[in-house]
Amino acid sequence: MTTAPAPYPIGTPGLPWGDEERAEWLSRQTRQRSYASDVLSVVDRLRSRFDVEEYGHLDYGSESYPLMTIRSREWRDDRPVVLVTGGVHGYETSGVHGALQFVDQYAADYADRVNLLVAPCVSPWAYERIHRWNPNAVDPNRSFRDDGSAGESAALVRLLAPLRDRVLMHIDLHETTDTDETEFRPALAARDGKPFEPGGIPDGFYLVDDMEKPSPEFQQAVIEAVERVTHIAPADDSGELFGSPMVARGVIQYPLKQMGLCAGITDAPYRTTTEVYPDSPQVTPEQCNASQVAAVCAAINYALAHR
């Protein structure tokens, strides 16, 4: 006999959250790590080799967060722009540290060929709380549109508005974790007053392509590079990954712009979202970061070879 999942501890099943429920949810969030120590200190160390700029600022109660980008020092209009984003969901750790590791180890290899723009931690409040949402219980990765309600997303939209049609490649670094199934999807269902439907978490790395403008060869080039570092997620018994049909090995598709996802923020012909699985017994945190780095390098290499 199948046991129904227990109701989420906040709210009334079937009823969307109001201000009281959101306040209760916020009261349960605790700071578990430091954006200043883990991210800003690393960004500061990169200032000797790259241009570092503050593109926005978030103020949540007594807490204040500068939003930082790392740019190529020799920015030229005749070079293509490549965009790397991480930490859109703050709990997805390798997205943040993989982006920083790429800049430290490999960004200089592309300095004479691209204008590189990296936003390593789009959601610092959520990074500190190891959470998906911002303090208003809003998912920034559904808010990358002109009318989006997340300040994290709005700041990046403003930054990229002048570059939207100049970006050659955008890779957005994410993770799919066991807590997607145990905490974040149940919380989403409760927030929206909908029933929670349990699913499965893919064991391995996969990518999310753009359903409206797919780039299958580009996606496979990234998959092949990452496979040298970690395993690729197989489809489940229904031929799906995380509830979506697997259209190619290790690849699913979403309508990026329609859903307000970060990877759809520009008109880049080459764009993808990585999904690392850090809870697999087959990987270490170092492998997770290295997977993100391998994906970024492969994505840039392919885009430059096929521009």
Automatic annotation (TrEMBL):
InterPro entries: AstE_AspA_cat, Peptidase_M14. GO terms for biological process: proteolysis. The keyword tRNA-binding does not apply. The keyword Ribosomal protein does not apply. CDD domains: M14_REP34-like (cd06231). Pfam families: AstE_AspA_cat (PF24827). Keywords: Hydrolase, Metal-binding, Zinc. GO terms for molecular function: hydrolase activity, acting on ester bonds; metallocarboxypeptidase activity; zinc ion binding. Its cofactor is Zn(2+). Belongs to the peptidase M14 family. This is DUF2817 domain-containing protein.
